[in-house]
């Protein structure tokens, strides 16, 4: 098998799962929907995908064992999936804190303008 394809197979196989998780991450919560939020969501997913590819490649080359070449694919897939989920799970509370700050700033501006 072609080595670059072999090391990328784990990411290719999980790409549909990553797309579903990414779509759910971007879809919820439904409000607020600003261009800044979309950009931040896209940035979080790009970081998750990039770190997932790096973890997958590292796992493929670091895997040792007597199970043969299949074990390398298993380790690479588990690492790619785990890193992608970890980044998305870290981005969720960061995004929530950011939403609260933006909402508080908007509320403060409204309260200041009505006085």
Throw out a few tags for this protein.
115 residues; mainly alpha; 3 helices; 85% helix
What's the main sheet like?
none
Percent strand equals under 5%
Which spans have pLDDT < 50 for at least 5 consecutive residues?
none
What's the number of structural domains? 1
- Figure out the total of helices: 3
What is the terminal-to-terminal distance? 71 Å
Order of helices and strands: HHH
Overall radius of gyration: 19 Å
Morphology: elongated
Characterize the structure shown:
This protein has 115 residues and is mainly alpha-helical. The chain has one domain (3-113). The protein has helices at residues 3-27, 35-62, 69-113.
Summarize the structure.
With 115 residues, the chain is mainly α.
SSE arrangement:
Blueprint (H helix, E strand, L loop, with lengths): L2 H25 L7 H28 L6 H45 L2
Helix pairs in contact: 1-2, 1-3, 2-3
């Amino acid at each position: 098998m072609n080595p670059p394809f072999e090391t990328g197979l784990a990411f290719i196989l999980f790409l549909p799962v990553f797309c579903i998780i990414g779509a759910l991450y971007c879809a919820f919560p439904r409000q607020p929907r600003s261009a800044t939020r979309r950009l931040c969501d896209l940035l979080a997913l790009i970081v998750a995908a990039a770190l997932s590819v790096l973890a997958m490649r590292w796992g493929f080359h670091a895997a040792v064992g007597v199970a043969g070449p299949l074990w390398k694919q298993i380790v690479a897939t588990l690492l790619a999936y785990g890193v992608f989920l970890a980044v998305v799970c870290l981005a969720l509370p960061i995004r929530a804190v950011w939403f609260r700050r933006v909402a508080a700033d908007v509320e403060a501006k409204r309260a200041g303008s009505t006085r």
